[in-house]
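Field guide to reading this record: the first block holds the primary sequence, the second block holds the structure written as discrete tokens, and the final block holds curator observations. Each block starts with its own label. This record concerns Ubiquinol-cytochrome c reductase cytochrome c1 subunit, catalogued under organism Nitrosomonas aestuarii.

BLOCK 1 — SEQUENCE
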Amino acid sequence: MNKIKIFLLVLFMAPMSLFAAEPGMPLDRAPIDTTDNEALQRGAESFVNYCLTCHGASFMRYNRHRDIGLDSEAEVLDKLVLTDQKAGELMLSAMRKNEGEEWFGVAPPDLSVIARSRGADWLYTYLRAFYRDDTTVPGWNNLVFDRAAMPHVLYELQGEQKLVVQTVDGKEVKSLELAKPGLMTVSEYDQYVADLVNYLVYLGEPGANDRKRLGIMVMIFLFGMLGLTYALYREYWKDIH
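BLOCK 2 — STRUCTURE
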């Protein structure tokens, strides 16, 4: 019995220890709107240009992007397919698992459900929290994910940030400062990342908007039927009471 109690205690404490082990920082709110097809299209183009080389989205097919406003398979091929793949194929990474392990020390994860795993706010903050760090193998570090294996692939757009460490009320406070501007202003880059994260949220459940719309219609129908049922009840029993 004692062994069972110890096992249950360890099982309960394990998730807490995982969260405690990660340094963490306040996460910025991601401006997510998966009903904005233009933003989703921009995010999809960013994904295939900067993410798909290393990360796959193996639960998604290219032609599914017609659901977010791309008119035809020809437009899907023109905007999103950069290889000789067909519109009906899965969005697979060009990088093999063993190549990722050799180059980065770990295989880049599939991003099909990364937004559901990490959360939109985490991704939005993470992609804006890279800074130069010559002590790491890729030459980059991240305030959200310390010593991340992933290099800052968007640095040309954002520029290069540096870490600033200050002591406030006896506590060490870390922040980032733009040391070298990129091709975009801070607000432009924030919007660029917001579109990308918005797309990653959509990627995690492409049918979410349809599910929500159907749920609303079902609830309206049920409330309507409730009213009709009550009216029928009153009519049926009015002569008896």
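BLOCK 3 — OBSERVATIONS
The radius of gyration is 24 Å.
The mean pLDDT is 86.
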